[in-house]
Design goal:
three-stranded antiparallel beta sheet, alpha+beta, seven-stranded mixed beta sheet, about 45% helix
Length: about 270
């Protein structure tokens, strides 16, 4: 960590020297460096983001996949809580092709009676599994009008804009998955459209892969993504790279998180959940 800090500092000083050597006043060069995340970030997102046309979900095998203990414990805890409200664990998968150095450990659970599918996701970086990690539960109901209604407790606001075909509600204030499911059921009741039955086939890998691909296809319509046919990957447009990058930087990051929390609290108050 110390070595990386020294390298970054040396790079900044070197860039400052180059900018002043090019004739910029020193204070202008400093401003350019201070704003570097806002112009370098979009470039990095544009160049580095590559989502495959068909992500690969592998059935979890403890002898082949190295999943961190916290991810296993999180999945077990959430699955046990959901089991008490009618969900049955269907399968576990590992996905590591969607984003570079990022792995998702996914547990799929089904509730035939309520016609809901649940996903428990533990996401971590393969470079430092204990340093950066995200865990959340998500419920998905396919509605008769063709839309998908998704409810999760992910505390990170999505960088993508909403689309008409998918209604996503984030409730990070609810850590109990059973309570989150009650919120999900209340939201389904609000939309005025019945749920479709769960698919009868057992092709969970295909459905998980298709769901991620569909998300990218929807973002093509928003102008955030495009499909690179030669490389068979989804990539951000310059518009998408700029907006996604800025949403992750201060002060926008903090503003969006506060808004997400306030919206979640208002929703819980309305639903008395």
């Amino acid at each position: 960590m110390r070595g990386r800090l020294v390298v970054n500092l040396a790079l900044l000083l070197g860039l400052l020297w180059v900018l002043t050597w090019l004739g910029l006043p020193w204070w202008v060069a400093v401003v350019v460096l201070l704003l570097a995340p806002y112009w370098l970030g979009p470039i990095a997102v544009r160049l580095a983001t590559r989502h495959p046309a068909q992500p690969t979900f592998e059935p979890y095998d403890a002898s082949r996949h190295r999943v961190p203990d916290w991810a296993l414990a999180f999945a077990d805890h959430m699955a046990a809580a959901l089991g008490r409200v009618g969900f049955a664990s269907a399968a576990r998968f590992v996905e590591s092709t969607w984003a570079r150095h990022v792995t998702s450990f996914v547990t799929v659970l089904l509730n035939v009676q309520s016609r809901d599918a649940a996903m428990v996701a533990a996401i971590y970086t393969t470079q430092a599994p204990t340093a950066r990690r995200v865990g959340y539960a998500e419920f998905t109901a396919k509605l008769a009008d063709g839309r998908r209604l998704v409810t999760n407790n992910n505390a990170t606001p999505s960088v993508y804009p909403p689309v008409p075909s998918k209604v996503v509600t984030q409730v990070p204030l609810v850590s109990d998955p059973a309570r989150l499911h009650r919120v999900h059921e209340a939201l389904v009741g609000r939309v005025g459209s019945a749920k479709e039955p769960l698919p009868a086939d057992a092709d969970m890998v295909g459905r998980l892969s298709d769901a991620m691909t569909r998300t990218m296809q929807e973002q093509i319509e928003t102008g955030y993504m495009y499909f690179d046919a030669d490389a068979r990957v989804y990539r951000p447009t310059w518009k998408g790279a700029v907006l996604m990058s800025w949403k992750l930087l201060p002060p926008f990051r903090e503003i969006r998180r506060r808004r997400l929390t306030r919206r979640a609290q208002r929703l819980l108050d309305e639903l008395h959940a």
